[in-house]
Amino acid sequence: MQTRDSIHSPLTVWLTLVVATGITFFAGEFEGSGPAGRWLVVGVLALALFKGSLVALHFMELRHAPAVWRWSVLGWLWVVVLGIAGAYLKGAA
Amino acid sequence: MSRSHSSSSAAALPLPAALQGDIAVWIFLLAELLAFGVFFLAYAFARARNPALFDAAQAGLDRQSGLINTLLLVSSSALVAHAVAVVRRGGSDAARRAAGALLGAIACALGFIVVKGSEYAAHFAAGMELSSSTFSMFYLCLTGFHFFHVVLGLAVLAVLWRQTVAGVYRLGDVNGLESGAAYWHMVDLVWLVLFPLVYLMH
Amino acid sequence: MQYASQAVAKPYFVAAIGLFVGQIIFGLIMGLQYVIGDFLFPAIPFNVARMVHTNLLIVWLLFGFMGAAYYLVPEESETELWSPKLAIVLFWVFLAAGVLTVIGYLAVPYATLAKLTGNDLLETMGREFLEQPLPTKLGIVVVALAFLFNITMTVLKGRKTVISSVLLLGLWGLAIFFLFAFYNPVNVVLDKMFWWYVVHLWVEGVWELILGAMLAFVLIKITGVDREVIEKWLYVIITLTLVTGLLGTGHHYFWIGTPEYWQWIGSVFSALEPIPFFALTVFAFNMVNRRRREHPNKAATLWALGTGVMSFLGAGVWGFLHTLAPVNYYTHGSQITAAHGHMAFYGAYVMVNLTMISYAMPLLRGRQANSEKSQVLEMWSFWLMTVSMVFITLFLTAAGILQIWLQRIASDPQPFMVVQDQVALFYWMREWSGVIFLAGLLAYLASFFVGGKPAEARAS
Is C417 helix (H, G, I), strand (E, B) or coil? Predict the structure, then answer.
């Protein structure tokens, strides 16, 4: 039986997460410093935001939840990741 | 707050906005996220004051173990999500298939515990402790706090598995399963921030 | 009153209120000594008045908790108390021990009291809030264990509910952590570390469980909301309490000589300690809003809601203000601490006890609720005590900020006593607020003697 959820079935989400994790890992292996290194870290953090949103929206099904819960968790993700990025860039300056 | 489910019609009706699991559990989850969030930001700002120290200490971490653990948790979460979907769809062998998925999730969780445990063993053998440096304090507290939640989650998953096998969760009565699943996803979510923050960010 | 043995709660409540009055009198004495330094000296020096004030507080709150337990456990367990006679015997033992101890504090110099009561056998005296002589401490343990035995046997032979289980957990925790009062290491760092096992793990730990259970019980009775809903909230609140409060103990380990990582752990976890109090407030208001009946005891409802708000403000907000290590570095041991301590104790534990007494006493005296006149007077006392406590807290906060600035932050820091002179105005204002508080307490006492036709439930 098909439901509208089948595009975002656990399997699809899982595959996306695995690929994103792989990219994250290899980016982290990169040794460079300077602006390129900084961009990589920002990229890794953006990936963390993306992966976290997938888990929140699909695994935790916040996509179907009342907005206040969805925005609480997504808001948490954004605030934390942006805060980390801000602290990182401040320290790297 | 479980969803009503039509087992006959092919076109799915729009589902009403519903929280996966019990609202009481979600209040607890938000508090947990707050605790971890504060810790994450504290780490980031402590690091900003001494990036060199943190980079040097971070080099001693095993990134491959971190990668494996991320894959284990993500897979575990996916299996739990799958189990919930299976139970919701119903059917004669739903309980058996869901229980199998949960067993897989438990195996992944055990894998995480083994990998992280061996990391800790190596650290402690090398003499790392809370007072070694600011990094070590954060590393041990953050990953330790998370590790504690994984162990707790393992217990939760075990209960979910037992209840599934006993046929407790069925059409319309999945609140307990969903609540436990939500907790486990939270543990996964936290790790997805923790791993790049502590292991990779340099 | 559904079970005859619930009647044993009454003497406990009466003793609680009596000792409360004593506590406030000594509070007023000290407040005056802050500004007239030799008031009652040498008859009642400041440190003796302080011991009496704090010890009376703790003992009357314990009497309140015990009375609350004796009242609610039979009703929750749907069975009579295991031994009402034991409850009465323990009442007199505890009261005698308390009275004798206070007399001991007042009648003889503390060092003499120590010699007379065998402190050289096991040194437990001399620590804040734990000044009791060894025999008193042992007496407390005996009374507590016998009380716990009585209550536990009652629960075991009857129905087990979430409320009675949480209450038991809190009360057993209270007794177990009190045992640390007997452990007094020579090393000053360890001494302080373990002292907080009693104090923090009491008021920011197991006592919160007791508070939650008591409040949940009263809310079920006066709102008629489904037990399941209320019990679920109770689970959430106590989980939040334990998760934040256990490691939150670290906010007492910043400067006592323990490792630096406590400044991080203590700050992070204790910063979250207001959350359970916030949940408690939302819980109380939510339940009253969703009420299924119009209970005639309006005063008890007011106390219940007030407990949520004042405990959140006093324990939660005022606690948060000085809990982060970088802030506490400057505020430690100042009047900010006193401000927080007063509003927190009042908002959380005084008020939950008064909530319980407000609900239970009419029933123990044979009616669902007191007369309208009596309730109005009681509600006046609520507002007088609560508002005056807010002012006490505000004045002490102001004194504290000024104190910290002059003594620790200003480019030319001044010595302690010089600074105390300069904040004296705030101490005077605090003292006047304390007088209003006493007026409120006297109004509260009077409300017990106002007669009239008991208020009845209106058809809703």
Answer: helix
Cβ distance of C279 and B130 shorter than 8 Å: no
Rounded to the nearest 10 degrees, what angle do helices C298-311 and C207-223 cross at?
Answer: 150
Is A63 domain-assigned?
yes
**Model pLDDT, residue B16:** 60
Backbone angles phi, psi at C454, to 5 degrees: -60, 140
Res. B202 pLDDT band, cuts 50 70 90: confident
Asked whether residue A79 is domain-assigned, the answer is yes
Q: Does B197 touch chain A (CB under 8 A)?
A: yes
CB contact under 8 A, A65 and B18: yes
- The domain locations on chain B are 23-200
Q: What are phi and psi of C19, to 5 degrees?
A: -70, -30
Residue C311 parent element (H or E): helix C298-311
In angstroms, the CA A26 to CA A16 distance is 16
B41 in reach of chain A (CB within 8 A): yes
Q: Is the pLDDT assigned to residue B10 strictly greater than 50?
A: no
C-alpha torsion angle, residues C172, C177, C182, C183 (rounded to 10): 140
Q: Which residues contact B191 (CB under 8 A, 6 or more apart)?
A: B69, B70, B73, B146
Look at the block and give the residue holding tokens 């994250």. A24
Closest residue in A to B39 (Cα) is A80
The minimum CA-CA distance between A21 and chain B, rounded to whole Å, is 7
Residue ranges making up the domain that contains A83 = 6-92
- How would you classify residue B172: left for phi > 0, otherwise alpha for psi between -120 and 50, otherwise beta? left
DSSP result, chain A:
---TTGGG-HHHHHHHHHHHHHHHHHHHH----HHHHHHHHHHHHHHHHHHHHHIIIIIS-GGGS-HHHHHHHHHHHHHHHHHHHHHHHHHH-
State whether residue B162 sits within 8 Å of chain A by CB: no
Residue ranges of alpha helices (H) inside C207-297 are: 207-223, 227-248, 261-271, 274-289
Under CATH, what is the fold of the domain B23-200? Four Helix Bundle (Hemerythrin (Met), subunit A) (1.20.120)
> Which chain A residues contact residue B104 at CB under 8 A?
none
Output helix, strand, coil percentages for chain C, rounded to the nearest 5: 80, 0, 20
Residue C172 has pLDDT above 50, yes or no: yes
Q: How many CB atoms lie within 10 A of CB C88?
A: 14
Q: What values do phi and psi take at C130, rounded to 5?
A: -115, 35
Q: How far apart are CA C167 and CA C161, in angstroms?
A: 10
Tens digits of per-residue pLDDT, B23-44?
Answer: 888 988 999 999 999 999 999 9
The whole-angstrom distance between residue A55's C-alpha and the CA centroid of its chain comes to 9
| C-alpha torsion sign, points B161, B188, B152, C227 | negative
From B37, B40, B52, select the one nearest B133 (Cα to Cα). B52
Which CA distances in Å does C201 have to B158, C21, C291?
Answer: 31, 27, 33
List phi, psi (to 5°) of C133.
-65, 160
Burial class (CB in 10 A: 0-12, 13-18, 19+), C143: buried
Give B171's pLDDT tier (boundaries 50, 70, 90): low
Residue C63 pLDDT class (50, 70, 90 cuts): very high
Instruction: Sort C128 into a burial class: Cβ within 10 Å, 0-12 / 13-18 / 19+.
Output: exposed
**Closest to C23 measured CA to CA, from C92, C105, C142, C137:** C105
- The pTM score is 0.90
User: Does A12 reside within a domain?
Assistant: yes
Binding partners of B (≥3 Cβ pairs within 8 A): A, C
